[in-house]
Amino acid sequence: MTAKVLSPFERPLSWLGRLSTRALLFGACCLITIEALCLIAVAAESHKIVQQGRAFKVATVSIAAGDTLDFSNEDEFIHQVYVQSPTLNYDSPEQSIGQVISIKFPTAGNFEVRCHIHPKMLLKVDVK
Ligand SMILES: [Cu+2]
User: Fold this and answer.
1) In terms of domains, do 81 and 52 share one?
2) How far is the CA of 111 from the centre of ligand 1 (A)?
3) Ligand 1 centroid from CA 90, angstroms
4) How far is the CA of 101 from the centre of ligand 1 (A)?
5) The dihedral sign for the CA sequence 107, 85, 59, 50
6) Which of 27, 41, 104, 123 makes a 20 to 30 Å CA pair with 113?
7) What's the structural domain count of the chain?
8) Do 123 and 93 lie in a common domain?
9) How far apart are CA 120 and CA 100, in angstroms?
10) Nearest one of 73, 48, 54 to 120, comparing CA atoms
11) CA–centroid distance, residue 53 to ligand 1 (Å)
12) 7 falls within a domain
């Protein structure tokens, strides 16, 4: 009878063969659960910002780095959104009625979202 010779790559994992299928399944489920919890903990969020009456419905919003603002044109006018800052520059095309434009804020800082068409429109964004 000859003993199976394990390669150097197989040896570190040879103990897996001694585990029961039930133990392996349990371990796999634990790893998947931990991974899912980690993903939930760091998941970026989206926040809806309504544009109505030639204004943003809120004047300020506080979000986490990596979050996205979804600008929803619920007005009777076309809009546009732009951000000009050292760390984020975005300039959307014209935004038709009913259209949603999303801007992601990847880094912390204070930003201003404005509209080229309506210069009085201002949303201050505090990204933590
Ligand atoms: Cu506008």
Assistant:
1) yes
2) 17
3) 15
4) 12
5) negative
6) 41
7) 2
8) yes
9) 20
10) 54
11) 9
12) no
Does 59 map to a domain? yes
Ligand 1 is an ion; residues with CB less than 5 A from it:
79, 115, 117-118
Kindly state whether residues 70 and 86 are assigned to the same domain. Answer: yes
Structure tokens of 64?
A: 């986490």
| 8 part of a folded domain | no
Tens of pLDDT, residue by residue over 72-93, are 999 999 999 999 999 999 999 9
Report CA(51)–ligand 1 centroid distance (Å).
8
Confidence of residue 12 (pLDDT cuts 50, 70, 90): low
CA of 71 to the centre of ligand 1 (A): 11
pTM score? 0.70
Domain with 118, as residue range(s), is: 46-127
Whole-number pLDDT of residue 20: 73
Q: What does the pLDDT read at residue 22?
A: 73
Compute the distance between CA of residue 86 and CA of residue 88 in angstroms, rounded to an integer. Answer: 6
CA–centroid distance, residue 112 to ligand 1 (Å): 14
